[in-house]
């Protein structure tokens, strides 16, 4: 899937009016000699300007001139904001430092499932044997019962909205046969996207010292995922009823942790259209969101905010703080 591009307009020459005719004899002009020293001075000044520009862009992470977004008030340790339509980096904070992505991992899980699932209405079972380990690790769950089945589509809602680890493992086994083979697909996809600072060991985001990423890589991933219409619909839904869940008589409803935290998707001059939360004690609060302002889409990833989902909304506060500055761009 490729994002649409706009061609730059071609500037065409326009016809000029014929020169005005006069009877006066033209006054001859003598061409002014250019000074070699003047040309040298211009070249030196331009070279110095290029060096200064390169240094400034390096220092700002590629941020453009003019009004920009400040990250000074962020609680999160790591962050990146991009214009998803152009790929331009607007602002960043320690975007290449290694961090733990927690359940932002499930964005990659969803991407791999959407790339490899035969059909969204395929039925997937959540085997009973996956539950004890998830319960022991206090993993977030969608609410499936051991041995319950649901369609791939409903499982994706259970994966993304309540961050269900039960759905993550069930989908991984459905796609690849076992979790290890699915993780190989995750890492292969990360490499294809240029996520050089990322390594996955599981599809859930549960803590593992060898399971890591960067804010830059997670921004790349979320922007890529948002190009998929099914992903956009799922990640942008406040709630969903998993009507195919076999042991719930069609009444298993899952709610988005993103929109629960935000309260409202509206932010100054725009609105948040999709997102994914994440948390482990080692990762802190993490949040990936996409927002629309004036016909453009922006992607923000923050990670390492203090607190947890029971005691803090620092990640949601950071999103409101950053997006509140977008109308000034």
TrEMBL record:
Residues 72-306 form the Peptidase S11 D-alanyl-D-alanine carboxypeptidase A N-terminal domain. SUPFAM superfamilies: beta-lactamase/transpeptidase-like (SSF56601). Residues 1-10 have a biased composition (Basic and acidic residues). Substrate binds at residue 276. The active site is at 103 (acyl-ester intermediate), 106 (proton acceptor), 163. InterPro entries: Beta-lactam/transpept-like, Peptidase_S11, Peptidase_S11_N. One of its GO terms (molecular function) is serine-type D-Ala-D-Ala carboxypeptidase activity. Residues 1-32 are annotated as: Disordered. Keywords: Carboxypeptidase, Cell shape, Cell wall biogenesis/degradation, Hydrolase, Membrane, Peptidoglycan synthesis, Protease, Signal, Transmembrane, Transmembrane helix. It comes from the Bacteria. One of its GO terms (biological process) is cell wall organization. The keyword Signal applies. The chain crosses the membrane at residues 42-61. Its EC number is 3.4.16.4. It is an enzyme of class 3 (hydrolase). Belongs to the peptidase S11 family. This is D-alanyl-D-alanine carboxypeptidase.
